[in-house]
Specification:
This is Natural product. With 70 residues, the chain is an alpha+beta fold. The chain has two helices and five strands, in the order H-H-E-E-E-E-E.
């Protein structure tokens, strides 16, 4: 696999120091707006809550002072 990737034209090999700077995990594609919301859906028995993002995705947060804070 490594040889195949290195043989693709236009692919530049990263230096060892650049490779060390790369953090693992998924990129953040969320458009959740941070803040506290008065209207939300809550999980009974815990302080977990959710509000919709501008695109319609689910944004999870916690209930604080009667609001869902993301």
């Amino acid at each position: 696999m490594k040889k195949m990737i290195n043989s693709i034209p236009g692919i530049q090999k990263l230096s060892k120091s650049s490779q060390k700077e790369i953090k693992g995990g998924m990129p953040s594609l969320s458009d959740c707006v941070r803040g506290c919301y008065r209207f939300y859906i809550a999980d009974s028995g815990s302080n977990a809550c959710a509000v919709p993002s501008p695109s319609g995705a689910v944004c999870f947060g916690t209930v604080q002072n009667g609001q869902c804070c993301i």
